[in-house]
Write a structure and sequence with these properties.
The protein is mostly beta strands. The chain is 0% helix and 49% strand. It has no helices and 11 strands.
Length: 116
């Protein structure tokens, strides 16, 4: 059974940092591209960042303009986990963050709230 489990969300003040984790089970992790999305109530899901497989692709990382320079995506092939390091957080980053395998499989999400 394929499972993607996000964790690491929480409440943080503007300018603060968080690291989200996405643990993946039930698929051959190193072959999959993993993406982070976020969503606020009443809005469509927004793509945030991607990290591509080094086996089936070139391992590149891509970021939405709104987070480039502040967020960093990485993957640990031993732990089958993808991370999203978020620095200099802004209130506009408040959302539920989801990870996705190949844009088809999604986890349940983790809430990030940026507020003073």
């Amino acid at each position: 059974q394929v499972r993607l489990v996000e964790s690491g969300g929480g409440l943080v003040q503007p300018g603060g940092s968080l690291r989200l984790s996405c643990e993946v089970a039930g698929l051959f992790f190193i072959q999959y591209h993993i993406h982070w999305y976020r969503q606020t109530p009443g809005s469509q899901r927004e793509w945030v960042a991607s990290i591509y497989s080094t086996v089936t692709s070139d391992g590149r990382r891509e970021y939405a303009d709104s987070v480039r320079g502040r967020f960093t995506i990485s993957r640990n092939e031993v732990k089958d986990t993808v991370y999203l390091r978020m620095n200099n957080l802004e209130p506009e980053d408040t959302a539920v963050y989801y990870c996705s395998a190949d844009r088809r499989l999604f986890g349940q999400g983790t809430q990030v709230t940026v507020s003073s």
